[in-house]
Amino acid sequence: MKHAQDQDTLYREAVDAFGPAMQRLARATEANAERQRDLVQDMHVAIWRSFAQFDGRCSLSTWVYRVTHNVAASHVDRETRRNRGAVTLDAIDQMPDGGSLSADLEQADALERLMAWIRRLKSPDRQIMTLYLEDLSAAEIAEITGLTPGAIATRISRLKTHLTKDFQEADNA
């Protein structure tokens, strides 16, 4: 019985610490608001189940990010097979609070463009970019992904260059 209590305690700790990151990962992975909610639910179930095997050999953050990114990657694979690659963008489900409406719309548009851009990346790059946007260091991302910190830093640099180029081209079109 103690084991189940430990599992529940770890789960609550993980959700308290990483719940917002899970929401952001779901939004970066899935455009459809309903499927985003399903994805977050799947992440919660997977995290709770995974703590039955958690032995503490890695940090809680590494464990949670590995599990949630694996769930997100499986979701993308499943949706790709189901939709044969078709991705539709839904309207923004919530407007940011505060500021002028024009500035809020511009910020929401930029965020949605970023999320759409991330969703188009291949799985390893999507994972690296979403972890980078969570302010994880190259060393932390390397621990989660199994790549070297140098490889992570190089990919982040290339992805940022690619992002800048894509956004500039879109703005000039």
UniProtKB/TrEMBL annotation:
Residues 112-163 form the RNA polymerase sigma factor 70 region 4 type domain. Keywords: Sigma factor, Transcription, Transcription regulation. Gene3D superfamilies: 1.10.1740.10, Winged helix-like DNA-binding domain superfamily/Winged helix DNA-binding domain (1.10.10.10). It holds the Pfam family Sigma70_r4_2. The keyword Metal-binding does not apply. GO terms for biological process: DNA-templated transcription initiation. GO terms for molecular function: DNA binding; sigma factor activity. Residues 15-81 form the RNA polymerase sigma-70 region domain. SUPFAM superfamilies: Sigma2 domain of RNA polymerase sigma factors, Sigma3 and sigma4 domains of RNA polymerase sigma factors. It comes from the Bacteria. InterPro entries: RNA_pol_sigma-70-like, RNA_pol_sigma-70_dom, RNA_pol_sigma70_r2, RNA_pol_sigma70_r4_t2, RNA_pol_sigma_r2, RNA_pol_sigma_r3/r4-like, WH-like_DNA-bd_sf. NCBIfam families: sigma70-ECF (TIGR02937). Belongs to the sigma-70 factor family. ECF subfamily. This is RNA polymerase subunit sigma-24.
